[in-house]
Amino acid sequence: MSAETLYGLCAAALVGLGLFGSIVDPQPLRKILAFNLLGGGVFLLFGVIARRGAAAGMAADPVPQAMVITGIVVAFSATALAVTLLLRLFETTGQATLRTGAPARPDPDSDRAGS
Amino acid sequence: MRQVLDIFTVAAVSAGALFFLVGTVGLLRFPDPLTRLHALTKADNLGLGLVVLGLLPQAEGFLAGVKLVAVWLLAQLAGATVTQLVARAVRRGGPPA
Amino acid sequence: MSGGDESAWPVSATVVRAIGFLVFWLMLAGVNPADLPAAALAVAAATWTSLHLLPPGTWRLSPVGLARLVLRFPLQSVVAGVDVARRALDPRLPLRPGFVACPARLPPGTARDAFCTLTSLLPGTLPAGTGQDGTLLIHCLDVGLPVAAQLAREEALFADALCGGVLEERGGDG
Amino acid sequence: MSTGFALDAGLVLDAGLAALVLAVAVGAIVAGTAFAAVVGFVTYGLLLALVWVRLAAVDVALTEAAIGSGVTGAVLIAAAARLRPAEARSAAERPGVPLRLAAAVLSALVAAGLAMLVLLPSAPAPSLGPAAAVHLPELAIGNPVTAVLLAYRAIDTLLEKIVLLLALLGVWSLAPDRFWGGAPGQPHAAQQDGALALLARLLPPVGIVVGVYILWVGAVAPGGAFQGGAILAAMWILVMIAGLRDAPATGGRRVRLLLVVGPAVFLAVGLAGFVVADGFLAYPASYAKPLIIAIEVVLTLSIAVILGLLASGPPGRERQR
């Protein structure tokens, strides 16, 4: 077995693991974390494809590699936004849950923010 | 001369690897987080130092040697800082809230 | 936060630091005339940041004291590593861990922080913060060893190198 | 003989690394507390960076270590600490066995499908490498990944900068109205932290030299605007969390200028392409390299400021006027 195949299988397992975690874990923060873990697996698949596409004197196909770099940065932006949403939810309701119908406490800012 | 240097490299790098191993043994055997920190920082810093020392004769030129030493110093600085942060957190009971 | 007064920066400190960062750049990039613009930018930005974050005059460096400290350091690293290795490999696991409170004679601030960071690399000692009375809490692998005395000696050497030997006397007995 | 042994030794290393990545990933998913999970995730990211090196993708390894593991880890760990009071309650809402079983089956199917793709590759591996190599000499950019990011697929990179800016706007707009334009963080005096403060005094100048070097070398070797910008951002974040300098007010003119200068210059050069070259984001042949480097320099600045502010969170203090 070649190293690329090995890491490819590792990537497939990571995607499965991250998917499982993001569905099953009830805590939103850990869903975000699992989703990032899933993303790492997807990027790794790109890396394997890039390595298999080594050509023209390059050690790997640069196009998937460049896409992964863009992907990592975009994943970080999405994570930062999601975490901020979650923290705002916690500040507003006093809990961090995605369950519908969770009792909410009044927003301390609503008297200022409301029009 | 070349051969003597090569033997020195092999010996020093092996000794360094040995200290990494011993640090890990300490990490597993020592009873609490604070003593484990001792094992990690002290043994690993010496291990990395020996690896760097062993690689110095193989470095291509003076600046490459400086780079190796810089790696060791930066790792020491980072290790020493993080150790203190972890130690303080442990003393206060658990990770920082 | 001081350090904003740019006119007060001594030229010598600026030049010394700039040379240091230039050497660091050459170490990374090698000697290449085509790199000049990037190297100049990097050195200027690094020196400016360094002067702001660690204003000159924070430490009074003594070359002799510093050399002694630097020469002692590898030896102490070996002692520290061998000490941990001996304890880790001994089947009886000879440990008597605990905290020792050491009076801190260095003035609080950067010098004391630097001393703590150095201490965490010395044999058998690991600073774990400051107690209520301003003493340093040192975690030791063996509280039976004369840690406080050893540390006081290190502190004196350290003060010679970085602070012109000035230590605050505390607790009457010096 | 000797090459055979070397190959085997490499494969043993790869197998060990892959096993370690998987083990740490499982640990991060099943960890008892969110804090432990985040620590596991950061470790996972660093190990992944090693995997990228093994896959001949040093550019990606640098990005993964700096952004995927480092800055993301900082954001997650701060959130885990803030959310600790709510943790026990939301952790108790674990779904029932049927749902967990269904999720396990679905995940296993997805993983198996991907594994099939890996094990049964198409006969000649698809590659855009030769196409990317064609124009490299004209661009005078030795690093093909940088060439793809800033020349061939420049529009992706431009849009990605816009995404970063939009994310920052999103984060800011989650602040209560009265804090708009104020500094990020809690309204408490940042306390200086001994050991960390020393590191934050000594390391940033060194980090700046490394960051500029990574940016500069990106034209010919692994490195570039993202990687350099992330290192600069990390130094800034270190100074802020050590309490040496406060985060700037998000309404400040200088901060906002730094945020947009990178994308704005990129866009301006792109539009100029209509006039002086073949179209949007086309560079005139003889100026390609200096233009790309100029874009990278301003992009690095903007990326560093955006990443630092994203990690600092929404404004949490009223603006001082």
Helix content bin of chain D: over 70%
* Biggest sheet descriptor of chain D: none
Biggest interface, CB < 8 A? A-D, 86 and 100 residues
Q: Class by helix and strand content of chain D?
A: mainly alpha
Distance between the termini of chain D: 74 Å
The stretches of 5 or more residues of chain D where confidence is low (pLDDT under 50) are: none
Quaternary organisation: heterotetramer
Tell me what portion of residues of chain D adopts beta-strand conformation: under 5%
SSE pattern of chain D: HHHHHHHHHHHHH
Descriptive keywords:
heterotetramer, C: 174 residues, mainly alpha, three-stranded antiparallel beta sheet, 5 helices, disordered C terminus, D: 321 residues, 2 domains, 13 helices, globular
Protein architecture, described:
The complex is a heterotetramer of chains A (115), B (97), C (174) and D (321). Chain B is 84% helix and 0% strand. With 97 residues, chain B is mainly alpha-helical. Chain C has 2 domains: 6-53, no CATH class; 63-162, no CATH class. Chain C contains 5 helices and 3 strands, in the order αααβαββα. In chain C, 34% of the residues are buried. Mean pLDDT of chain C is 81; it is low at 170-174. Chain D folds into 2 domains: 1-86, no CATH class; 143-321, no CATH class. Chain D is globular, with a radius of gyration of 23 Å. The N and C termini of chain D lie far apart (74 Å). At the A-D interface, α1, α2 and α3 of A face α1, α2, α3, α4 and α5 of D.
How are the SSEs ordered, and which strands pair?
The complex is a heterotetramer of chains A (115), B (97), C (174) and D (321).
Chain A: H1 3-24, H2 28-52, H3 62-93, H4 110-113
Helix pairs in contact in A: 1-2, 2-3
Chain B: H1 2-29, H2 33-55, H3 62-91
Chain D: H1 2-30, H2 34-54, H3 58-82, H4 84-91, H5 97-119, H6 129-134, H7 136-139, H8 144-152, H9 154-173, H10 194-217, H11 225-241, H12 253-276, H13 288-312
Helix pairs in contact in D: 1-2, 2-3, 3-11, 3-13, 8-9, 9-12, 9-13, 10-11, 11-13, 12-13
